[in-house]
Each structure stands twice: as C-alpha cells, then as structure tokens.
User: Which sequence fits this backbone?
C-alpha cells in the first residue's frame, strides 16, 4: 500500500440557521428552520504517499481545519470520497485513531486535571506503545521540547506554549503512521517554534511518518515539508513541490541598482531594448534608482553584467520574491485564479 | 524504526479502560473542594423533604407507611441519589460546546464507555460521601435504617449497581440533545425534573396519585432510586425483587443500545465547533 491519503472530489458544506437581528428576530428564528449553506470545502482531490511531508496553507476560513476534521474522521463529508491508510475515516474512526496522531493547535488534547507525565503513561497503554518505541519517542520529546520541568504539572496549569509542546509530544508518542497538525506552532515564541520544527522533522525522519500540516507561519512549511497544497475559499489552487510553487508564482526576480548619475531619456530607451532582449523588463529608472525585473531563473548574470557595463553602479541588490510575499499576493486576489 | 499501525482489539482496549479509570479517579479527587460545597447543598436538599414529612406525621401519624419506615426510606433514597451524582450532561455538554469533543473522538476508545468510566469514578467518590450520610443517619435513626435481611442487602447491591448503570445510560441518552443544541443545561434541567418526580427521591411511589404512578411505570427513573431502596427495606422480596432486578436489566440494556444508536446519528450531523 503506497498511498497514505486518497482524497477524491471531497466537499463539505455547513448548514447555518439564519438568524435575524434583534430580539424579535431571535424569537422568529426559534420557530423557523430557515438555513443557509456554506461551502467550506469544494470538490478537492489529492493523494499523499507514505512518508511524504505536505503543508496545507490558505487564508483564514479557506477550509484547512475542515479538511483536517474530515481526514481524521470527526466530521462527515457532504460529498466525494476519502481514505486514510486504506480506511474511510468517519466509518472507522476509532481504529484509525490508533494509527494517526493529531494536534488541533487551539484545543488541548491532554487530560485537564492530571499531570502531564500521567497522561503520557495513559497514552502508552491506550495506544499500546511498545517499550522500545516509547523509549525513543518519550526521551526524544522530553529532550527536544524541554518538557522535563513540565512533567509533574497538571495540564490546566500550563501556559499556552507549554501546553502546545506537551500536546505535540502526546500526538507523536505512538509513532503513528500519519500525523495531522493543525497550526502546531500557534502562540509559540520564535525559539520554541524552531525547537518544535526540529522535533517534528526528526521524528518524521526516524519513523517515516506521513505528515500533513496546516499553518499560517510559512517557515513551518519551508522547514518541515517538501510539498504544498494551497486552498483558496475551499478550492485547491495549487498542489506541487515548494520549488514548483515558487517557480509558478514568483514571477518577478528583481535587480535593484543604485547609480551615480540619473539615466537620460534616450539612454533609457536603448537600455530598455537591451534588457528586453535578455529576458527582463525595466521597471523603474527614476533618479538614482534602477529596477529590473525578470522571470527566467538564469537571466540575472547577463542582466547584471549589462547594467555594470552601461552605468556607473554604486550599489547592487538581487532580490527574489519570498514565499511569504507570493502567498500574501495570492490571498489578496479577489477570486482564486492563476 | 517503522511507524506503528496496530489493530483494535478487545483485550487491549480493556487495559485502556482500566488505566482510564485510575486516571479518572485522580481527576475526581482533584475537585475535592467543589465536592465539599456540593455536599453542603445536598444536606439542605435532603433535609427539606424530611422536615416536611415530619410535619405531615405530626398532624396525621396513620399514613400508609409508618414513620419508623418513612425516615429510613428518605435517608436511603438521599444516599442512593447522592451516589448517582455524575456530571455526565454537564461534562459532555461543555465538551461539545467548546469543540473539545474532537479530542475525545480522536482517542482509540469507545466514547460511551470512556465517559461511563468517568461517571463511575465520580460515583465512587460521591458514594463514599453517601456512606457518611448513612452513618449520620444511623446515629439518629438507629437500626431502623439497617437492611431487612442479609439476603435483601445482597440483592440491593445488585440492584444498586444496575441503578447506577441505568442512571448513566439515561444521562447519556439525554445528552445526545446537546449535539443538536450545543448546550448541556436545558438537558440537565429536563432530566433532573423528570428524575426528581419519578425516581422516588421525595417520597415512595406508592404515595403518588394514580396517573403519576402510571406514568412512572413507563419510565426508567423509578429503577434508579425506588427499586434498590425497596429491595433494601424488604418491601420487595423473593420473586418480586428478582422481577424488579430483571426489569432493571432490561432497561439498562435498552438504554445502552439506544444511547449507542443515538450517538451514531449525532456524530453524523456533528459540526465540531471552532477552527
Ligand atoms: N461548525 C461550523 N459551522 C458553520 N460553519 C463553519 C463551521 N466551522 C467552520 N465553518 C466555516 O467554514 C469555513 C472554513 O472554516 P475552516 O475552519 O476550515 O477554515 P481554516 O482554513 O481552518 O481557517 P483558519 O486559518 O482561520 O483556521 C469558514 O468560512 C467557517 O466560517
Ligand atoms: Mg483552522
């Protein structure tokens, strides 16, 4: 069995009771059953191989959590089919629960009233973790996530970040075949974020875990994943490697030069022609600043050489649009288009 | 090392439940403070029917049941009721509303059983406090409060256990409403009102007007308090007691299955709250 996740034309729509404003409205809606439908996930298809590490991104309300809820079997899809480890999640939820690890960043996974260490012991029994595996995952978690000082504390007394670390450790304790992480770095400080990413990568490699992670911090994805899924208002807008994503959307690489004296008008015209010949465009040539943009990966050296030979360059910068910028730009577009 | 993919199996699930029980007990202990306050409330709650009945007997000592039987009954009913204390609706209602139900559903254990284990640990804790009531009662009422016979006591233990399970499964059926209303309070109130009326907590059911008595016959609530206490007091003996226990067994099984069935329906339409 090669594929870990198989999703085919998956959809989910939520029904919402329509509420009119005001007290009278509230009274009316008690009796009327008027509902409106909200399509949170629209017809998405993808498949993930065993051992793959995939990031799922999309703006607020794009349908990421909804997708994860369907994949883990806690809600039932309204359309399409899905399989995780060869099982239909909502039909075999309890069996599947034994084989997956889940963190929903915003909710605590651990028992509220008992110390963290006790919860871990309970999970060891519940998930039947063999001693040798437990030895590895437990020690690794305690060491990597600095849990030692937290182990004796009841969960309700932990800070958000402390709790998140414990949750993550708990979700990976049984070295599950598939791990779903919904915003696992929410509310963590920068150094803990780094710790968490390293820990995830480490355990993933050690056990060949299949990883699906959603986040708003793209660094989580660039550091732990190879592949990217982009959801846009419930539809799958992109599915491919992170490199392919950059190539597709990072239209502009920029060369920004500062020159000693401003470029004259006719000089500018000839320069522009030559730049076009080399596969670039002259975006800006006002005053002392020159900006050249190009799409082709290999065009930078020739364009730089051109600028250096024609102008008295004082300072030079090569810029590439980073993935954050690309994603922000995509989110700003009114309707998801390429 | 390879990632793990174990299969569900019955024996090992059983280990999980045992383990879960130990942890639940500890969690019940964590709430000692709130237990003490609820104990104080309970004393007031049970004191009031007693005071009312004392007044009734003062005016008319010739009721169907003698005063020497009535007060032990009320006290025992209070103890049993206290031992049945479980925050099932409250707990599950809260978890549904806050979306924490997701966490429970993602554990490889049966939700109905796991919650039952929580209830059981609450029950043991409250049961221990119920014993304290009982001993206080013994100091006041003397041997009137002791079981009719050793045999009655044995049957009572069986009936009490069944009563506990019925109580849990009743709560579990009612709490299914929380999957639709996303709140446990209304359900708690509704079940509470029915139970107060029909369980026999405020008076033996023989005192009820015929239509209420008839309604009570068709409901499971009387098997939660009236049945075990009647057996204890020796009002129901031999074949009659066995018949009651069989009825309890039937109710328990029916309610268990109904809860299981309703839960499947509830989950189909559940929309786990919160991103
Ligand atoms: N229980 C629910 N009932 C009704 N609508 C819901 C429910 N849960 C989510 N939605 C709606 O479905 C859409 C998708 O929500 P979802 O939680 O999947 O988004 P998300 O991608 O996880 O967003 P975020 O980044 O903010 O976590 C949203 O428009 C949301 O309002
Ligand atoms: Mg979300």
Assistant:
């Amino acid at each position: 069995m090669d594929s870990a996740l198989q999703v085919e034309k998956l959809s989910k729509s939520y029904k919402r009771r329509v509420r009119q404003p005001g007290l009278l409205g509230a009274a009316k809606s008690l009796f009327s059953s008027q509902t409106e439908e909200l399509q949170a996930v629209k017809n998405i298809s993808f498949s993930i191989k065993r051992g793959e590490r995939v990031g799922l991104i999309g703006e607020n309300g794009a349908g990421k959590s909804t997708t994860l809820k369907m994949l883990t079997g806690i809600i039932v899809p309204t359309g399409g089919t899905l399989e995780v480890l060869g099982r239909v999640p909502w039909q075999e939820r309890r069996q599947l629960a034994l084989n997956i690890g889940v963190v929903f960043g915003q909710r605590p996974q651990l028992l509220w009233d008992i110390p963290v260490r006790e919860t871990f012991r309970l999970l060891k029994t519940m998930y039947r973790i063999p001693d040798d595996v437990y030895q590895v995952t437990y020690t690794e978690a305690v060491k990597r996530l600095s849990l030692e000082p937290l182990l004796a504390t009841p969960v309700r007394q932990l800070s958000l970040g402390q709790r998140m670390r414990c949750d993550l450790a708990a979700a990976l304790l049984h070295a599950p075949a598939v791990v779903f992480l919904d915003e696992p770095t929410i509310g963590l400080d920068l150094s803990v974020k780094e710790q968490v990413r390293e820990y995830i990568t480490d355990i993933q490699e050690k056990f060949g875990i299949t990883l699906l992670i959603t986040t708003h911090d793209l660094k989580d994805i660039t550091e732990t994943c190879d592949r990217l899924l982009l959801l846009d208002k419930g539809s799958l807008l992109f599915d491919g490697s992170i490199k392919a994503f950059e190539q597709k959307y990072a239209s502009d690489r920029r060369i920004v030069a500062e020159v000693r004296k401003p470029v004259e008008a006719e000089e500018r015209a000839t320069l522009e022609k030559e730049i076009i010949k080399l596969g670039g465009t002259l975006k800006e040539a006002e005053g002392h600043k020159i900006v050249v943009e190009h799409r082709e990966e290999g065009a930078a050296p020739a364009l730089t050489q051109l600028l250096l030979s024609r102008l008295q360059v004082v300072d030079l910068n090569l810029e590439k649009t980073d993935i954050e910028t690309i994603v922000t730009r995509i989110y700003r577009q009114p309707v998801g288009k390429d | 090392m390879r990632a793990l993919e174990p299969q569900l199996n019955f024996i090992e699930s059983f280990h999980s439940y045992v383990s879960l029980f130990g942890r639940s007990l500890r969690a019940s202990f964590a709430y000692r403070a709130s237990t003490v306050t609820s104990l104080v409330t309970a004393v007031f709650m049970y004191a009031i029917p007693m005071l009312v009945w004392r007044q009734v007997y003062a005016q008319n000592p010739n009721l169907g049941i003698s005063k020497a039987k009535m007060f032990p009954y009320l006290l025992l009913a209070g103890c049993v009721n206290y031992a049945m204390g479980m925050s099932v609706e409250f707990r599950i209602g809260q978890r549904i509303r806050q979306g924490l139900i997701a966490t429970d559903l993602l554990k490889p254990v049966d939700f109905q059983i796991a919650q039952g284990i929580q209830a059981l640990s609450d029950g043991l804790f409250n049961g221990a406090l119920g014993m304290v009531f009982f001993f206080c009662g013994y100091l006041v009422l003397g041997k009137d409060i002791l079981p009719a016979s050793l045999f009655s006591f044995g049957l009572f233990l069986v009936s009490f256990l069944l009563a506990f399970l019925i109580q849990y499964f009743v709560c579990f059926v009612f709490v299914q409403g929380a999957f639709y209303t996303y709140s446990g309070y209304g359900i708690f109130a509704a079940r509470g009102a029915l139970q107060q009326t029909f369980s026999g907590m405020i008076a033996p059911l023989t005192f009820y007007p015929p239509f209420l008595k008839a309604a009570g016959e068709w409901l499971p609530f009387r098997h939660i308090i009236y049945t075990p206490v009647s057996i204890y007091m020796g009002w129901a003996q031999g074949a009659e007691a066995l018949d009651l226990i069989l009825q309890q067994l039937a109710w328990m099984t029916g309610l268990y299955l109904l809860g299981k069935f309703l839960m499947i329906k509830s989950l189909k339409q559940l929309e786990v709250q919160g991103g």
Observations:
- Chain A is about 40% helix and 30% strand.
